[in-house]
Write a structure and sequence with these properties.
The chain is mainly alpha-helical and about 200 residues long. It contains ten helices and no strands. It has one domain. It is globular, with a radius of gyration of 18 Å.
Length: about 200
Amino acid sequence: MTFEIWISFVLASLLIIATPGPVVTLLITTSISQGKSAAFSMIPGTFLGDLTSMLLSFAGVGVLLLASPTLFSIMKLVGAAYLIYLGVRIWYESASNATTQKKPSTNKSKSALKAFWVTILNPKSFLFYVAFMPQFVSKHEAFLPQILLLGATFLGLGLLNDFTYTVMANKVVRFLNNQSQKWIHRIGALNLIITGIVIFVLKH
């Protein structure tokens, strides 16, 4: 793989990763409501979710999802239901959080697990890895070293993106009153709910 191809992959990945999705929404709302450390505790879950999705995709799950409408529909429904559940929960939590200045306590293991499931239950993740990354693999070189490099690059950029959004949200919250924080929470909740609905109606 040439350096030019790798740079092209980095730029393309940055454009994709920087677009806020369910995980970024979860990190931002958590950073605002529970603090930076609570959001940081979720990042290992997102990393493991991305890594698991990537490994399973190249182990054949992505192709299986493409070939099996039934399996795709089951995973789609589970993922959509979980996002909608989280969105509704965050919406109702926003009201109680806005009435107190004290940050609620956080179970780091549960936070990481929550982020893991948000990441891995999205069937588009599996299809993305199968469709996107192989486009940057040269047919004239060994496949495994190239895919390992691309995978490590993508995961590293994902970590950087998660940390950046978390820190930015934590800095912005200092300038927000309780009512503003409440509405940011509700916007984040609506984002998760709408994303869940979009996944639900996603065609095979």
